[in-house]
Amino acid sequence: MPELPEVETVRRTLLELIKGEKIEKVIVTWPKMIKFPDDVEEFKLRLIGQRFNDILRRGKFLVFILDEDTLVSHLRMEGRYGLFSGEESPEKHTHVRFFLEGNKELRYRDVRKFGTMHLFPKGEEERHLPLSQLGVEPFSKDFTPKLLNHLLKKTTRKIKPALLDQTLVVGLGNIYVDEALFRARIHPEKRSDKLTFKETERLHESIIKTLGEAVEMGGSSIKSYVNGQGEMGMFQQTLFVYGRQGEYCKVCNTPIVRSVVGGRGTHTCSSCQKR
């Protein structure tokens, strides 16, 4: 699933392509993807005539700011946006097509059909699911070591599943939790409420640094991820632990091990991240 760096990269690259573009027509071939409003015809009709004025990001969600409405989109596992000429035939698994002026189309392709779209009147999106219960943004001024410590002291869960909880801190998924915990020298099975404040400070710093570096490198292309212009990310080339089971730690030369923590595949250096 695309995490914060990938979604942020999609946001930036897509904004360059569609800012100011006017929607003339919408086709939806997989209605279950449209979660709100319930009537897909209403979804399509409301979009006609509106322009893409901006694209924001909230956690792992893309937030398209239109003239009257806000479109909230989650890519899930393999969702992908791209801008195409209207003369090009849609690829297989293209489920939503936004017809723009000048014979252009913004197309949403999703092999697994897990992606979702919600259309709200502008200003209402934060009052309703899926955005209403999201936690703090890692790049915001509100995300401080003190706040992170406060959030983690409230749960007895292991630190890995706690960091994956989008109601606490948004945007972190399997890749960047593994990487941030490694950089902070914290074992993924340590209880959240048992972290010392110094450990929390290290974790806070490693989260921001890891995500920031990933954004600058265009995200991680582990499987099918590409940005809004069809380009791969490069951060996967710098990973310390994720996906490197059996390889040697870049810091201490200990083999990276894979385990399951909170139901998720987890990668750890037993020397750098002592239990």
UniProtKB/TrEMBL annotation:
Pfam families per record: Fapy_DNA_glyco, H2TH
Co-factor: note: Binds 1 zinc ion per subunit.
Stored CDD domains: EcFpg-like_N
Positions of DNA binding: 93, 112
Annotated catalysed reactions: Hydrolysis of DNA containing ring-opened 7-methylguanine residues, releasing 2,6-diamino-4-hydroxy-5-(N-methyl)formamidopyrimidine; 2'-deoxyribonucleotide-(2'-deoxyribose 5'-phosphate)-2'-deoxyribonucleotide-DNA = a 3'-end 2'-deoxyribonucleotide-(2,3-dehydro-2,3-deoxyribose 5'-phosphate)-DNA + a 5'-end 5'-phospho-2'-deoxyribonucleoside-DNA + H(+)
Molecular-function annotations in GO: class I DNA-(apurinic or apyrimidinic site) endonuclease activity; oxidized purine nucleobase lesion DNA N-glycosylase activity
SMART domains: Fapy_DNA_glyco, H2TH
Domain Formamidopyrimidine-DNA glycosylase catalytic stretches: 2-115
Enzyme Commission code(s) on record: 3.2.2.23, 4.2.99.18
Keywords, in A-Z order: DNA damage, DNA repair, DNA-binding, Glycosidase, Hydrolase, Lyase, Metal-binding, Multifunctional enzyme, Zinc, Zinc-finger
Start and end residues of each FPG-type domain: 240-274
Active-site residues from the entry: 2-3, 60, 264
Coiled coil stretches, renumbered: none
Stored InterPro entries: FPG_cat, FPG_Glyclase, FPG_N, H2TH_FPG, Ribosomal_uS13-like_H2TH, Znf_DNA_glyclase/AP_lyase
Names of required cofactors: Zn(2+)
Domain of life: Bacteria
Task performed by this protein: Involved in base excision repair of DNA damaged by oxidation or by mutagenic agents. Acts as DNA glycosylase that recognizes and removes damaged bases. Has a preference for oxidized purines, such as 7,8-dihydro-8-oxoguanine (8-oxoG). Has AP (apurinic/apyrimidinic) lyase activity and introduces nicks in the DNA strand. Cleaves the DNA backbone by beta-delta elimination to generate a single-strand break at the site of the removed base with both 3'- and 5'-phosphates.
Subunit structure as annotated in this protein's UniProt entry: Monomer.
Family named by the database record: Belongs to the FPG family.
Protein name per UniProt: Formamidopyrimidine-DNA glycosylase
Annotated source species: Evansella vedderi
Taxonomic lineage from the root: Bacteria, Bacillati, Bacillota, Bacilli, Bacillales
Gene: mutM
